[in-house]
Amino acid sequence: MLEPVHYLALLERKPGGLDHGRPFANWDLPECFALLRARQEGRFGFDGTREYIKVLRLLEHHSLRELHTAIERALRCNALTRDALAQFLIPQPDWRQTTFPLDGREHLRQVRVTSTDVAVYRELLPVGGSS
Questions:
Q1: Contact 46, 40 (CB under 8 A)
Q2: Cβ-count burial 89-122 (b if 16+ within 10 Å, e if not)
Q3: 117 in any annotated domain
Q4: Taking a C-beta distance cutoff of 8 angstroms, is the pair 49, 43 a contact?
Q5: Is residue 65 part of a domain?
Q6: Looking at residue 49, what DSSP letter applies?
Q7: Burial of 56 (0-12, 13-18, 19+ CB in 10 A)
Q8: Strands (E), the chain
Q9: Domain range enclosing 80
Q10: pTM of this prediction?
Q11: Using one digit for the tens of pLDDT, what is the confidence trace for 94-114?
């Protein structure tokens, strides 16, 4: 059994191999991969095939499950390039569990942020109504 991932680097030089190469003949990828390729080729023409191959090369460093999830997220926001899609593969820590350490920033310990009274923004409106 030929492992398609081992042949991905060759596809960058010979993109036609994606449709005609034996290693890729029975490669069972999730449906979103085909949708991504169709959108890339629709937008970029033949360069879309090359961009799709760059996306497939992400399988050299990421699991199929991770790339599948990233492609689904990218398709939702129409991020069709490899670089845009790769942003969804970067681990994102839960921001609610992060803190901003004040070590070495003693001058910030005196800073106090008060709640904003949004009613004061009415003063920016012209007299007698809105906009």
A1: no
A2: beeeeeeeeeeeeeeeeeeeeeeeeeeeeeeeee
A3: no
A4: no
A5: yes
A6: H
A7: buried
A8: none
A9: 4-91
A10: 0.70
A11: 777 777 788 888 888 888 888
**Structure confidence by residue, pLDDT tens digits, 8-64:** 999 999 999 999 999 998 899 999 999 999 999 999 999 999 999 999 999 999 999
Angle between helices 46-56 and 31-44 (to 10 degrees): 140
Q: Structure tokens of 83?
A: 């670089």
Task: Tell me how far CA of residue 60 lies from CA of 28, 69, 127, in angstroms.
Answer: 16, 16, 63
Query: CA angle 30-39-22, nearest 5°?
Result: 50
Q: Is 83 a domain residue?
A: yes
How many alpha carbons lie under 13 Å from residue 40 in its C-beta half-sphere?
Answer: 26
